[in-house]
Structure formats: C-alpha cells, structure tokens
C-alpha cells in the first residue's frame, strides 16, 4: 500500500519506479508526507506535472531528484567534459540513438498510451539528454515518428538545430541499434560506445586516425553513482541536486514536450 509506505515513520526516502503516468501522483503522495523522493525518468508526463512536483518539494522543504542515472556515470561526465573543453575543437554535430525490440504486447507499459508508453519517453530521453547536456536547449526542433496501433510512437527521428551545430537523434522499439553517442568536432570524434547511457567506454578519435579508448573499470551495473549522490544529499539535508538540478529536469521535459507536439503524440 503506497499510502502506508508514505506514512511510515521508519522510512526516510522513497524510490519511485512505477509506470510514467503515475510518477506525479506517487511523488506528490510521498512529498506530502515529507518523504525524500528519487523519481525515475521521465520525471512526469509533461512540464505542468513536473512544475507541480518541484513546487511541492520546495514548499515542504523536502529532497526531490529525477533518477536519470546517466548523468552520474563517470564515462558520460568524462565525454561531456571533453566536448565542452573542446578537446578536438568546436562541436559540429552529434549523432545519438537508442533502439531495442521488445515483444509487442498491448498490455505492456511500453505500448500502452495511458501508461506513457512509446520509445520517446522510455529511451528517446537518453539521446535527448546527451544533446541537452552538451549543447543546451536547441533553437529549433524537427521530429517525425511512426506509431504502433496502440497510438504510441514506435520510432522517433529528431533533429535539434543550434546556431552552428546539429544533433541527429533517434529512438526505436523496432530494432536493436548501436546505441552510441558520437560528438563530431573540428579535429576528431568523441564517441561514447554502446550502450552509451549505461557504464561503457569512451573513444577519442582524431582526424589523423589516432584512436584512444578509455575504460572506466566499473565494478557494478552503475546505479550506485546516482544512489550515492542521492544519499549524500539526504544525509547533508539538501533538497536539490547540484547535478540533476530542477532546471535540468525542466529543460528535459520541455524538450520532450516539444518533440511530442511535433510528432502529434498525446497520452490522453
């Protein structure tokens, strides 16, 4: 019983990993009982819901953080640092994808529109996050999608246009893809190898052909980095992460909303 859990005086924090469409309801329930919340990505279904969650957390002075584990992984942070410090010069283009082929089942949350199914919210969020982290909010978004009979997106192709940079992103439930993120710069490529969103390696490939591969010697599946950060915030009585900030979560959901609007996807 979720209400009993939220009321339990022996519980300090709650991790929410229910289907997407329940994130807001369950987060508000926990925050109303002054429980710290680590809520899975996507934070909620749209910006309005996210703002409601953030507002209550701030009002009650309770810790709230979006659980987007990639943000805390050393290999991802390393690659982004190389991009931002212009290791190979200015960034010209990003190509990132995420695709796998789950068995089609109309009852599964992945294909259920009411539960926030589709490739965009479930896995498209990762290529989008790779773009936003390196480049910030795009000047223009173009997107197109194919759909399952249940009304959720099967594949989503996205182009994010920046002043002098282009991000080409893709998510799909129709095939297994490389699931890499490649940052093409003036003098080389910074590539996060498959699967880029989880513990992996980074390749630094210069235009001269020299390639260096960096291994991060992960000793776990990788969730520990996110959990350690959240525990630190909890122990030091902080109410907002300095890595997965509220502004970062708002920017992410705003971008997802914009893509969804462009492809004509509704969860109602």
**Would you state the CATH class of the domain at 70-221 and 257-263?**
Alpha Beta
- The CATH H-level superfamily of the domain at 70-221 and 257-263 is Dihydrodipicolinate Reductase, domain 2
Helix content: 25-40%
Q: Give the CATH architecture of the domain at 70-221 and 257-263.
A: 2-Layer Sandwich
Q: First CA to last CA: what distance?
A: 26 Å
Q: What structural class do you assign from the helix and strand content?
A: alpha/beta
Secondary structure tally: strands: 11
Give me the Rg, rounded: 19 Å
Share of β-strand residues: 15-25%
- Run of helices and strands: HEHEHEHEHEEEEEEEHH
Number of helices: 7
What's the overall average pLDDT, rounded? 97
Query: And the CATH topology of the domain at 70-221 and 257-263?
Result: Dihydrodipicolinate Reductase, domain 2
Strand order of the largest sheet: 5-6-7-4-8-9-10-11
How does this model look, in words?
The chain starts with a helix and ends in a 5-residue tail after the last helix. 33% of the residues lie in helices and 24% in strands. The protein is of the alpha/beta class and 268 residues long. The protein contains 7 helices and 11 strands. The mean pLDDT is 97. The strands form 2 sheets. It has an 8-stranded mixed beta sheet, with helices on one face. Helix 2 (23-32) packs parallel to helix 3 (47-60) and helix 3 (47-60) packs antiparallel against helix 7 (246-263). It has a domain at 70-221 and 257-263: 2-Layer Sandwich (Dihydrodipicolinate Reductase, domain 2), CATH 3.30.360.
